[in-house]
Amino acid sequence: MSGRKPARKRGWGRWLLRGFLALVVLALLAVCVLAVMGKVAESRWEKLAAEIRASGQPLTLDEVLASRPAIPPEEDGGPIIYAALSELKKVDVPYEGVLMLDDKCEFEFPERLDAKCLEHTREYLKSHAGVLDQLTELLEYPDARLRIEYASDVIGAMSSSSHVFSKLRDLCKILYIDAAVASADGDHDRAARDTTLLLRLAGAIHEEPTLIANLIAMAVESMAARLTTESLQLPETDAPILKRLQVAWERSEKMHGFRMVLLGERAGDLNMMTPTYGFAPSQPGVLTSPPWWTSVVGLRAYFLNCNRMNLAEYYSILIEATDRLPKDLWSTAQSEEKRLQSRNPLNMSAGFAAPVVTRAIELHLRSLAESRCVIAILASERYRLANGAFPAELSDLVPAFLDGVPADPFDDKPLRLKHEDDGALVIYSIGANETDDDGSIDPPQGRGRAPDVGFRLLPPEKRALPTIE
Predict the structure, then answer these.
(1) Any residues with CB less than 8 A from the CB of 74 and at least 6 apart, and which?
(2) How does pLDDT run across 132-167, given as a tens digit for each residue?
């Protein structure tokens, strides 16, 4: 009996040794498998990247920026924008008592204006006269491009442009305030100039290949839409000024596009998915070869390359859809977001990007709808001045006041027109719910958006100058 115990110990030792060797073999096998998976994924990504470039689409941010059409210096108003920003830096006056900028000053244009705040606002605008005069020169140039030096990484690209966009927002606020005061004073010519300048600034921002730039541009256009439609609630504007405004809006509407944004966002997201070995990227966009003992990070290379392929395919589908109707881009974004929700959880990057991009495309279509409604509103007011009544249908505006009836970007059908009981005219789009809510353009009580997108034009007998209290 005593001789059996040592044999049992030797048996356990052999099993432990065998188990350890088995684990080593499995680990080595796993390392080899992961390394092969990483290399295969790398090869597949390089093949896909080559196919995308062969189709003529840029992949990196530098390539996207280089793909923009060149603007001759004599046609580029970009330096005028920077000159105005430089002039803005020289002005240091407080916002206290300024309409729109001071929370204590209620800004209810065009219904009511606070007299004391209006006085402070005029002084504020007077101090910025040089900025406005400088910016007015922008109207002499057919195009304008910003000169933003983007960093190679996404976070750096955002921070490198944030300062410029912040100052541009300040510039747009000054234009908005000046146009509102000009409208209240009956100076429709100056108000039209400021509104046109807002649209020109929005157009310059639209050309930047980032989502944040596009959102800012849409916000500026929304300001311009509010200015245009609310100034029409005041006593009559001359027909030539209305025509000039309509031309400015038609020019701006043609610049709406989402392709450059998608190209830039794809480049930024792909850069974030670049496989690197270590704590910092060595060469963004280039796969480095790790030493044999770090082959376990083949899993990382596999994960990142699979996500790059998923991102590239997702954005490429949307980029191709920009060549079709706006509603097709909208429906494609919605269907792609649903499809990505059921994808492999390892390929999560496109799933994270999709909801943000879908929401941005919805806002893009909304901004486009607002622009087209403003164009139709201006044409309708010109029609009223010429014929004594609002048009019964939008087709009545063609061809004297419109080349064609603007299409609703959400369904590609003509924009809707509604005559209200009080004589007001409503021109609207069905909006993101893709349902005609009979021109319901007033937001619900509290937070939220109205179901339809559009504007209301009052009959002349209901228009009045704002009350100054």
Answers:
(1) none
(2) 999 999 999 999 999 888 766 555 555 556 778 889
* Residue 47: both structure tokens together: 């093949």
- The angle that helices 211-231 and 239-254 make with each other, rounded to 10 degrees, is 160
The counts of H helices and E strands in the chain are 13, 6
Alpha helices in 1-150 (DSSP H): 4-54, 61-66, 78-90, 115-127, 129-136
Pure H helices in 151-238? 154-184, 188-206, 211-231
Report how far residue 286's alpha carbon sits from residue 250's, in angstroms, rounded to the nearest whole number.
44
Contacts of 247 (CB under 8 A, 6+ apart): none
DSSP letters for 237-268: PPHHHHHHHHHHHHHHHHT--SHHHHHHHHHH
3-state secondary structure 46-84: HHHHHHHHHCCCCCCHHHHHHCCCCCCHHHECHHHHHHH
> What is this structure's pTM?
0.88
Q: What are phi and psi of 416, to 5 degrees?
A: -90, 150
Tokens read off for 133: 């005069």
Residue with tokens 């949307």: 318
Cβ contact 107:100 at 8 Å: yes
In a 3-state reduction of DSSP, which class is residue 418? strand
Q: How far apart are alpha carbons 388 and 277 in whole angstroms?
A: 73
Six-digit token string for 429: 């789009």
Using alpha carbons, list the distances in angstroms from residue 302 to 35, 37, 272, 285: 9, 6, 14, 15
How far apart are alpha carbons 189 and 178 in whole angstroms? 12
Torsion of CA 286, 289, 293, 298, to 10 degrees: 50
Residue 44 neighbours by CB under 8 Å, 6+ apart: 305, 309
User: Which residues touch 408 (CB under 8 Å, ≥6 apart)?
Assistant: 369, 372, 414, 415, 416, 429, 430
**β-pairing, 112-113 with 467-468?**
parallel
In sign, the C-alpha dihedral spanning 42, 48, 53, 57 is negative
For residue 48, the tally of other CB atoms under 10 A from its CB is 17
Helix (H) or strand (E) holding 113: strand 112-113
Structural tokens at position 151: 């960093």
Beta bridge partners of 93: none
Could you read off the pLDDT of 298-331 as tens digits, one per residue?
677 777 888 888 899 999 999 999 999 999 999 9
